[in-house]
Write a structure and sequence with these properties.
about 230 residues; alpha/beta; Pectate Lyase C-like; 2 domains; eleven-stranded mixed beta sheet; 3 helices; about 25% strand; elongated
Length: about 230
């Protein structure tokens, strides 16, 4: 594993070195002393394993298409935003809007995620080992969120498609979000998704999906739309 030391380097310089290593055929790159700098390992379009030995700042792993990124620490806002494919794994916690607008791949946060995790997801999987903040899954279009802990307020607000599985409390689901019991197939799929990351299966699960009342506008239900907007 080749190592890159971030000390004294700008995010641009760090990212350029990461890409040089990948283009040279290095299968694994260790990035030391990231010091929570922003925009690290963005727009990586080739399969490679990038390991950050420490916490990262905003937007780490954004717009990726294929890399496997590990963060041995916490991550700031916008983790893996707009990721197409690949894997991003964070050992501790993540800030607001983790996995926002991802289209594929898997984002794993072993600790807690802050507000708006998984908003506008268009595919892929977001796994949160702990709890999440308010409005997670907002306007979710496709994909799967697996939340092992408790959900914040307005979970799944105005979601269209996709599924959210919750192992803890769902005290305040969002507009048009419906809480159901998962099927046996759902439970099997969740267990299979958690197993590669050694995250225990919650003892019980709830499933949150769209109630479909907001899928098309009807002036007779203006009060429902006014609340959502």
């Amino acid at each position: 594993m080749n190592a890159i030391d971030c000390e004294g380097r700008t995010p641009r310089e760090i990212n350029q070195e990461i890409k040089r290593q990948i283009e040279a055929g290095t299968p694994e790159v260790l990035v030391r002393n990231p010091a929570a700098q922003h925009n690290l390992a963005v727009a990586l379009l080739q399969p490679a394993r990038i390991v950050f030995d420490g916490s990262v700042g905003y937007y780490c792993g954004g717009m990726g298409d294929g890399p496997h990124i590990e963060v041995r620490g916490s991550a700031g806002w916008g983790l893996a935003e707009c990721m197409m494919s690949g894997t991003v794994v964070v050992d501790k916690n993540a800030g607001n809007s983790a996995a926002a607008s991802i289209r594929g791949g898997t984002v794993v946060i072993r600790g807690d995620a802050a507000a708006r995790a998984g908003i506008a997801m268009k595919g892929g999987t977001l796994i949160i080992g702990g709890s999440c903040g308010y409005m997670s899954g907002f306007m979710m279009q496709k994909g799967t969120i697996i939340l092992c802990g408790d959900a914040g307020e307005a979970l799944g607000d105005s979601m269209y498609e996709g599924r959210i599985f919750v192992g803890g409390r769902v005290d305040d689901p969002g507009n048009d979000a419906v809480v159901q019991e998962p099927t046996e197939q759902d439970l099997t799929e969740v267990a299979s998704a958690l197993k590669p990351f050694d995250i225990p299966m919650p003892s019980s699960l709830k499933k949150v999906v769209a109630g479909r009342r907001l899928w098309s506008f009807d002036k007779k239900e203006w009060d429902v739309w006014k609340t959502a907007l």
